[in-house]
Fold:
Amino acid sequence: MPGAGAVLGVDVGGTGTKARLTGADGLVLDETRVPTPRDDPGAARLADLVADLATRALDRGPLDAIGLVTPGVVDDGAGTVVLSVNLGWRDLPVRDRVRTELARRGIDVPLAFGHDVRAGALAETTTADTALTRGSVAFVPVGTGLASALVVDGAVVSGGGWAGEIGQVRIPAGPHAGHRVEEIASAGGVARRSGSASAHEAMLRVRAGDPVATSVWDECVDVLADALVWTTVVSGCHTIIVGGGLAESGALLFEPLRTAVSERLTGLRVPTLVPARHGDAAGAIGAGLLAHRVARTGVAA
Structure:
């Protein structure tokens, strides 16, 4: 059973929610994945889910804190999701909604709240290669949608919640003009546009030489490369950590993506592109780190 110091990290994804219970030493004590509640405009079902996960954790022993991270434009300090396109939220006080449900069930533990991608960046650059704690490093998970987080000298840049929303930029010209970047350059976009059940299925079709899936994949790489180049020239990042479901395709993504980024940065420093160490668990791990922080300091934001 976990002793004092156990925390629960909850990462709310566009399709699935990941929860990880860890001890003070970082040992994973329990892990679960459940569907993210849909048609939940007031986050009532999400609050129920987090309370259920906390109850499950408490059944194992003492719980010091909970870390909750969500997608979208997130104001960490206010505990508000300003805008989440994939979840249909706007100006929603998610932290307060979850706190209220926890209190209703008699669960009195600190709650840290944040952004899923910034939490993932924290996880990917914490206790990692010391080079990732110096200069600018970008974390770009290519999942249901597309966003990024910038870490400068070990500190994650928030920008009041607005930093890193690269997936929401409208493509100004070319065959995808008018579309948001993430509609083309994301795992969700690849699956939808190729008529596949998932990005993994699309990847298998690409490996088999399917022309439709291959065309969609190539377009994803092109648009994603453009987004990574913007990020590089603005931030001067020396490393880009690519995560999310699409990164699990390995060389099929990384080889053409590295080439495309390099070609666009002729005469400039080309960042090193590396796969995320934690895969799609980065957000939950980062949420756990936020929970450890609030348990230690008592400061939720």
Notes: The chain has two domains: 7-116+281-297, 129-276. The radius of gyration is 19 Å.
